[in-house]
Amino acid sequence: MIYRSSYFKKELRQAYTGNKTGNNRKIIFAIFLGFISFALYFLLQTLQESVLSDVVPEIMQPSFFSTLYIYIHISFFLNAVYFIVYYDYLFFSEIRKNSWYLLVQMGYNPVSMIFSKFFALLLSVVLIYTIGFMSIILLTVFLKYSFILAYMPSLYIAGLTDLILISIFTMAVSLYVKTIINARYFIFFSAVFIIVLKTVLGYYPVLSNRVAMQNIYNLFDISRSVFLPVAAVMIIASVLVCVIRARNVAKYYNILDYDLNLPADTEIVYKDKRAKKWRLAGGGEKSLKQRKAFDTAVTVFLIVFICTLLFFNVFIILINASTPGSEVTIRGVIPFVFKSDTMEPEIMLNDLAYFKKIDTQYEVSVGEIIIFKQNNVIYVERIIEKNENNLKVDIDNYPPMSQAGAMIKTVLREAVIGVFAGRNRWLGALILFANTIFGRLLFLLVPTILLFYYKQIIDFYQRRSR
């Protein structure tokens, strides 16, 4: 029995991992968020000399800003995952299961129960987020970076706004979504929607600017981005929807969510008052077909994902095993991870460069970048002069304090094995990551686990979706 004086405490207990959760588990989860964000920051530091340093410098800097910036995004992602897993405990799905019906009939005020649910979830979200925020600061202290307090309140508010928005937004929709599986889809797509909204409204250029974030008012400057005002409107609208919709739904008994445990061949019908006809409860055969289609889609996705990871592992092994005289060739293309800055900006350090494999009959031209073998060593340089069977080559980028032209050499045409055809900086970064200890474990362990346990994973997800 839920007594009037303990309803808020009951909701607060259930706000994280159901009935068994207490403050200790919330603190552990918060510290876990801090540690995993810190670990991710360390992992990214192994990719300093890659495309990430150019595209997302805000997460690669040796500063508190980078660790906190990573934390607010990890916190948003893992909380969304948590909402998906424990949707049944956290949101208003219990109203659709008639859990509030008797309480309302006994005189409990639906509005006070609604706000108890609000405050319980938000209090847990704020508590966990705040403890995690403090833990990542404490962990970063050990790195002895310059402590700049100015941008910390801005980052704190930015991350907390995202969590409150997805929490309240999901609460409102939980009053309309009939099945758990659809609700989980919605949480996922709402998280994606928030990220897209921040991108479209120009919020990320403000959020990732360490100088701008030192002034908290820049977050609310509509000339820079209108995301926060839009988020505030969405939160207020969601709260109003919750109060109105939940108060009305809680007063009525919903037969569609009632499990009678009848035999498998039994069908339940109800009368649609609007259409004035009898309908099959639960959608019947259509619902079964949708579930089978979903199971097939999940199975196909897992198979494709496993095959992709296994193929990438083979690709990495072949590239790492490549030696002069036995270069890897895929459909006439030689992939080569460039480990030098001598050809910048045409080819950057750690780029995956592609070279078209050629024979001795291929006509090379002055200005082309070639890959050639000399004294059993692989070189990549540009042709600057051509004289019959001899090619004069040089690098594009000389190190500081070096004499220009010092690296010019003459190469026999027969030594050329390929001509530069393009590059991919992201694949280069991915290969760089795959060669780290964590990368090797991820790309080898994950497909192995999925390969042997994908059926159990599908069965578990089906049970959680019922």
Task: Reconstruct the topology from this structure.
Elements: H1 7-14, H2 23-45, H3 52-55, H4 64-85, H5 87-90, H6 93-96, H7 101-105, H8 110-141, H9 152-173, H10 180-200, H11 203-207, H12 227-249, E1 269-272, E2 277-280, H13 285-321, E3 333-337, E4 352-357, E5 369-374, E6 377-387, E7 390-394, E8 409-412, E9 416-424, H14 425-434, H15 437-465
Antiparallel strand pairs: 1-2, 3-4, 4-9, 5-6, 5-9, 6-7, 7-8
Helix pairs in contact: 1-8, 2-4, 2-8, 4-8, 4-9, 4-10, 8-9, 8-12, 9-10, 9-12, 13-15
Describe this structure in words.
It is a single chain. With 466 residues, the protein is α+β, with helices and mostly antiparallel strands. The chain has 3 domains: 4-256, no CATH class; 291-321 and 436-464; 333-434, Umud Fragment, subunit A (Ribbon). It is built from 15 helices and 9 strands. The strands form 2 sheets. Strands 3-4-9-5-6-7-8 form a 7-stranded antiparallel beta sheet. Strands 1-2 form a two-stranded antiparallel sheet. Strand 5 (369-374) and strand 6 form a beta hairpin. Helix 8 (110-141) runs antiparallel to helix 9 (152-173) and helix 9 runs parallel beside helix 12 (227-249). The longest helix is centred in the middle third of the chain and has 37 residues, at 285-321. The protein is elongated. It starts with 6 loop residues before the first helix and ends with a helix. Mean pLDDT is 80; it is low at 1-5 and 14-21. Keywords: Membrane, Transmembrane, Transmembrane helix. This is Signal peptidase I. The chain crosses the membrane at residues 27-44, 64-87, 118-143, 155-177, 184-206, 226-244, 296-319, 426-454.
